[in-house]
Amino acid sequence: TPRSRKHFEELIECTRLNKRFAINNSRTEYYPLTFQNVSLLNFENLGLWYKKDLLKFYTPKNEDEVSHTVLNEFKKSENYFLGEVNRLTKIMEDRDHQYLDLLKLDIEGAEYDVIDSIIEDNLKIKILCIEFHEPTSNFVNRIFQIKTKKFINKLIKFGYCLVHYDDRHNFTFVKSSFK
Using one digit for the tens of pLDDT, what is the confidence trace for 6-17? Predict the structure, then answer.
């Protein structure tokens, strides 16, 4: 998202100038990074999806929010930007990655399609951190709770162990071995 890119660029610049960079605008917490650490990072202007495409990323109505979504039922916004997306398999192939140690998915409802693609492609990912997003409508929320449980079971069947979850829909899965 535009704000994420700006945040990353500011982090790079602050560490280049040997300045501290606040975490979430905190007055007391700062990233414990040096320019040498940060220079190892790369910002990819690319979204994760189940296929290569150019999609609308809908803007949050609340300007304090950062996250955009390709599924407008979550934001119900008329504003968007166009962004390139691709399947994780292709992204990994392009970077010559055989496996990932960690993948964090906080992709505003798109996680379901991406999880299906990970399973279909039998990707080797040691740790998956997933925030499942559910609409706020009570009726729709109940449907998504059923969907979330279905996808948790899919991941368990695929060889993941659920090791942690919280009341904000954050789940951590660990795969003990790659088959």
Answer: 999 999 999 999
